[in-house]
Amino acid sequence: MKKRKAVVSLGHEALGYTTTEQWDAVKKTAKALADLAQCGYQLTITHSNGPQVSMIHKAMTELRRVNPDYTPVPMCVCSAMSQGYVGYDIQNSLRSEFLSRGISTAVSTVLTQVTVDPYDEAFYEPDKIIGRYMTKEEADVEVQKGNYVTEYPGKGFRRIVAAPKPLDIVEIDTIRTLSDAGQAVIACGGGGIPVIEQQHVLKGASAVIEKDAIAGRLASDLGADLLIILTGVEQVCLHFNTENQKSIASMTVSEAQTYIEEGHFGKGNMLPKIEAGIVYLEKVPGGKVLITSIAHALEALKGKTGTVMTRT
Predict the structure, then answer these.
(1) Distance between CA 93 and CA 96 in Å, rounded?
(2) Rounded mean pLDDT of 236-255?
């Protein structure tokens, strides 16, 4: 029987924030992913990379500071490094978990580029913080390079980059081929490596892409049956963190849009996930979105918890 396709988006909780945390976290994550696979799903997995790409950027910036002979490393290269680093850990842990359960499914990681619009408004109002704290002198150098910085009184300055919307997944045909072959695929890590297409040449952009935004696009392009967004809460809530907090078991796209207009979802946490679900369901009307925590993934898949979003 042909497996149903599920795109799984992993948040920070699935990976941890340091190298050692990630080693431990991906083992637990692999168990949850293997549970989903055993329920009959072909998995295409994407993941966050905020702490990881920031760590890499800090390390490469410090290397350049201490050893001037090394050239600066652009954000797109840091993003590529983080894809390989995180993908490697997930791939190894998931393969081991599969084999321990007698599952022969191959697992692969695809280094993925995602095109963005050079005129996206996000480039004019960057808001994603990366890198270490800098002195005023170091911040001035970044500004002279054309980069953006923001000040933290008493702490210093930090660089900020844009988060443009994804346009096209460059390696989508490769991802689709592996998916159709029944393999577990790790792709579009950290939102993908942001690139700008200029006369058929792809040039890296100094930006990051929201991993939830690319998850919705990836699920749409693959025509997935299910988009699973694993985050830090068991269910989506209205009036989150207030005395009127209310969990939502299910909602339609129109209901979700109403909740957005009412301001229920935070820009830096739940809003991108709801918007990704809407993008996916507009392209795949018969699909389903499931939002829950990694600890409750299997229960949510069985309909016992989590929040389900559908077109109607």
Answers:
(1) 5
(2) 95
